[in-house]
Amino acid sequence: MNKQNIRCSIAMATYNGEQYIKEQIDSILINMKENDELIISDDGSKDKTKQIITEYQKKDKRIKLIEGPHKGVKRNFANAIEKAKGKYIFLSDQDDIWKKNKIDKVLQVFKKENCVVVTHDAQVINSKLETVIPSFFEYRKCGSGFIKNIWKNTYIGCCMAFDSKIKDKILPIPNNIEMHDQWIGLIGEKNGKSIFYKEKLIEYRRHDANVSQMKHYGLAKMIKNRIVFLKEYNLRRKSCEKS
Predict the structure, then answer these.
(1) Of 9, 103, 146, 163, most Cβ neighbours within 10 A?
(2) Quick one: residue 133, left, alpha or beta (phi over 0 = left, psi -120 to 50 = alpha)?
(3) 10 Å Cβ neighbour count for 205?
């Protein structure tokens, strides 16, 4: 496949994910077409994660395993995004389960809404596959809007996809912001339309080893995070306006 022929790239970040990685990859492969690619950036796993991925690679050339920068989850996702060649880029964690036709349904939203970012709903499950939150959107009161998502971020990376035309505006992801999903979502809002699609297209697994947590920080840290984010956002906005 050359760059012009790649429809979608799935950018996955992995680190010590051997417990659930097979379920995640299997659910993604069912969604993929021949002209899609799965880019997996591994950040130095010490378990069997890379071995498992390598076995998949032998059977499916659409899977590309690359070495991560070993500098944390944001840089690891940025590494996968940078290498992605598809028109649309989907983000993926290492431990969720995608539902059938997720990619096709999200692509329909891009086409219908003429948007640059799509975030869909998710059913939150635990390690035993039991539903703990029926709708992440309802739980988090998700929706677009700059002030809304500065006050309380409702973008969720594992449920996001974006048009590659904003890739150069997203990268590099500042290392001092809290997480990549808020950054991608609000950069997207600045450069087009962002849609929150209400269908639940993944089972979003929460367990003790998750990098992100569904809890609030203390007030001081929350204020600091917002100040840092706004500073980086304004710097990027001014840089994009000059270019």
Answers:
(1) 9
(2) beta
(3) 25
Beta-strand runs (E) in the chain: 8-14, 36-42, 63-67, 88-92, 97-98, 117-125, 131-133, 160-163, 194-205
CATH class of the domain comprising 3-242 = alpha beta
- pTM over the 0.90 mark: yes
Written as six digits, the tokens of 159 are 């449920």
Cis peptide before 172 (omega within 30 of 0): yes
User: How, if at all, do strands 117-125 and 131-133 pair?
Assistant: antiparallel
Euclidean distance between CA atoms 225 and 210, whole angstroms: 20
Listing DSSP states for 122-155 in one string gives EEEE-TTS-EEES-HHHHHT----HHHHHHS---
DSSP-derived 3-state class of residue 39: strand
Query: Rounded mean pLDDT of the chain?
Result: 94
Taking CA 34 as the corner, what is the angle to CA 204 and CA 6, rounded to the nearest 5 degrees? 85
Q: Which residue has the higher pLDDT, 67 or 216?
A: 67
C-alpha span between 212 and 241 (Å, rounded): 32
Stated as kind and residue range, the H or E segment containing 225 is helix 219-242
Q: How confident is the model at residue 5, as a pLDDT? A: 87
pLDDT band of 230, cuts 50, 70, 90: very high
Length in residues, the chain = 243
Give residue 241's Cα distance to chain centre. Answer: 26
